[in-house]
Design a protein that fits this description.
By secondary structure, the protein is of the alpha+beta class. The protein has four helices and ten strands. Strands 2, 4, 5, 6, 7, 8, 9 and 10 form an eight-stranded mixed β-sheet that branches.
Length: 208
Amino acid sequence: MLDLAKKWVALRYSKPGRVYLGLVHRLDFPVAGVMVFARTSKAASRLSAEFREGKVKKTYLAIVEGIPEGCEGTLRHRIVPSGKLSRVAYTGEQGSREAVLEYRVIAQSGKQALVEIDLKTGKKHQIRLQFSHIGHPVLGDSLYGSACALQRGCIALMSRRMDFLHPTRKIPMSFQSPVPAGWPWPEVIDPGLIPAPLWTWQQMRKEL
């Protein structure tokens, strides 16, 4: 995505030579949705500070196995990296970091729930680990205990919306991703307010 975005900036702004682009907010490989890039190092630094200071509102959608008790709540754990994964830390374990999210169940279908998540922190695999830890793994996430497989190794988790201040103009900005094709909860309907993309894969193919 970083390489693709650099290509687009070079074309859109007729920039010769190397293009700077800072990756401020990334996603796990099988996760869809909003990512954040910065076109200058100053913007990257200021946006990164917003993320560190908890000033960015991060809204995710997930389909989880089973129905979380109470249909809404807060998950708070201390987690640590464990190889390519993460795990919940033992009591008092050094190197652990607090992971916090709030969730609410917005729809149910059989033994699955569509959950909206307000991600308060941003630790590695945080949403995937925390829901697995309470017995409700994200659909398709075999690394964290899901018994269901989705196409192309995807999992039913997406960064739905990101809200933050413009790094220099300090005006509120909001970015929302459409639900990806093949999303396993077809009843999720977009409000129709998302603008058309500035480029398509077909238009960029010759540049890649």
